[in-house]
Amino acid sequence: MQSNSIEQNNSSLQELPHNSYSELPFTLKQLRAAIPGYCFEPSARRSLFYFFSDITIIGILYWGAAFFDSWLVYPFFWLIQGTMFWALFVVGHDCGHGSFSQKKWLNNLIGHLSHTPLLVPYHGWRISHRTHHQNTGNIETDESWYPVTEAKYREMQWWEKFLRFEVFLLMYPLYLFKRSPEREAASHFMPDSPLFRPSEKWDVIVSTICWALMVGFLGGLTYQFGWLFLLKYYAGPYLVFVVWLDLVTFLHHTESDIPWYRGKDWYFLKGALSTIDRDYGVFNNIHHNIGTHVAHHIFLNMPHYHLKTATASIKPLLGEYYRKSNDSIFKALLHSWKSCHFVKDHGGKVFYQSKSDLTKG
Q1: Cβ-count burial of 123 within 10 angstroms (0-12 exposed, 13-18 middle, 19+ buried)?
Q2: Residues near 158 by Cβ (< 8 Å), separated by ≥ 6?
């Protein structure tokens, strides 16, 4: 993997229109102009095709699992169905960005239909995810998968480090209730949470009600058919879905050569470049090109099916500022898990360091 660190020149740092700064050799406007116009136009028909395709495959998999009803089959069913749950989540992800269609009501409808079955409060997630995109790469204001500081790492209890750095691939459900470290505690389910504006109260309430109805539905199934039924047909795939969600989010924002910024050293375009494209092999198409992440962070309202074209269009302009890893996902995960624990307490531009660096100092 090539190192693509972004050089800074603090003496020339000055704000220009639309979050573009003189230290980069290109502007957001130039990047947009390099991309064919149709890439910014969502097609409701095409987006609905992906939604109904995912739903159809999920239904077929459920039919197959019930037909065979064998513990030799269920582990494979969990892996495949959990992967399709993740694909369905990505469809809702497009809805949250408004890139599913140009109709807000349709985005909200499909967003709820995609996320509620996965126990994700659509609007609560959509709003906090918006904050993440508006502040990508900003240690102080990013919302998800930002690094802890060295001082915070040193004071963390052993169980906090265990949750954060050892079982992080299972932490998404907890995040929905508690948010992340070094941020004010907040729930994605409560309208008075600091995550939300007062005007977003009813959006949050609607999604929380939908989530509660789904919990009630699962509870009813469990009461009727037993805990084993829940494990076979929902809990197993759901666990795989959570791992996929945490894995992909972690890998797109956790890499030893990705810079993080503070204060005036951060601005939108530079922060948006603090992510990396990943190759998920056979899963690229199944997951609706979620691995094409750099272009997505620069132009968050672009439909997933145009991201590859957009990436090819802007790569010549981005040059060394574009990051892509060709490592296997397992290798990339192992590398980031071993080398990315904290960042320095001070500095406008910092990089992840390993816990082993504490003994070197």
Answers
A1: buried
A2: none
DSSP 176-204: HHH--TTS----SS-TTSTTS-GGGHHHH
Q: How many CB atoms lie within 10 A of CB 218?
A: 17
Q: Is 144 part of any domain? A: yes
Query: How much is the pTM?
Result: 0.91
Which range marks the domain in which residue 272 is found?
A: 33-360
Best CA proximity match to 252, nearest among 220, 276, 280, 228 = 276
Burial class of 59 by CB neighbour count within 10 A (0 to 12, 13 to 18, 19+): exposed
CA distance 251 to 239: 18
CB 82 within 8 A of CB 237: yes
In a domain, 60, yes or no: yes
CA atoms within 13 A on the CB side of 211: 21
CA dist., res. 57 & res. 252, Å (int): 27
For residue 2, being part of any structural domain is answered with no
Cα–Cα distance list, 314 to 187, 209, 266, 322 (Å): 37, 42, 21, 9
Find the angle CA(70)-CA(76)-CA(79) to the nearest 5 degrees. 135
> What's the rounded Cα separation, in Å, for the pair 151 and 2?
30
Among the residue ranges 226-230, 250-254, 299-303, 354-358, the one predicted with the least confidence is 354-358
**Residues with Cβ < 8 Å from 108, sequence gap 6 or more?**
95, 122, 123
Tell me the per-residue pLDDT of 158-214, one tens digit each, with 9 for 90 and over. Answer: 999 999 999 999 999 999 998 776 677 889 999 999 999 999 999 999 999 999 999
Rounded Cα distance, 174 and 240, in Å: 16
Is the distance from CB of 247 to CB of 166 less than 8 angstroms? no
For residue 195, being part of any structural domain is answered with yes
Hey, CA dihedral for 334, 234, 110, 178, is it positive or negative? negative
Question: Would strands 148-149 and 342-343 be described as parallel, antiparallel, or unpaired?
Answer: parallel
293 vs 80, 116, 249, CA distance in Å? Answer: 23, 24, 10
When divided into structural domains, the chain yields a total of 1
